[in-house]
Design brief:
Length: 112
């Protein structure tokens, strides 16, 4: 399997865990003390790091640090938008489109 595919796959999975760790407590644990939410989030974040660290190590063999970071940001937005809409039941506004266009520009300049 190509290194870029391995890296992207691991980063997507990592971002799913990251997004849940960072934001799902706002919906699921809103009635609990913040430290309970923090402990639950840390538990979820462990799985994020178990995927993110190997992804970056694998990706760094063929990509620059800047390319890995931009790739991460694109994946983050790609995971966050469906999470916000379907899980958190938030609406989409134009800012998502503008942010996506800015990221496309960043991808172009970083990978050219």
């Amino acid at each position: 399997m190509p290194i870029s595919v391995q890296t992207i796959g691991l980063l997507i999975a990592s971002n799913v865990f990251m997004t849940f760790a960072w934001y799902a407590h706002l919906r699921n644990l809103s009635g609990r003390p913040w430290y309970i939410a923090a402990i639950v989030s840390w538990g979820i974040a462990l799985f994020e790091y178990l995927l993110q660290v190997p992804a970056n190590r694998i990706g760094f063999t063929t990509m620059s640090l800047a390319q890995l970071k931009i790739l991460q940001e694109v994946i983050t937005l790609s995971v966050f938008v469906p999470f916000a809409v379907f899980y958190m039941r938030q609406g989409i506004d134009w800012s998502f489109l503008w942010a996506g266009l800015c990221l496309l520009g960043a991808v172009y300049f970083t990978f050219r």
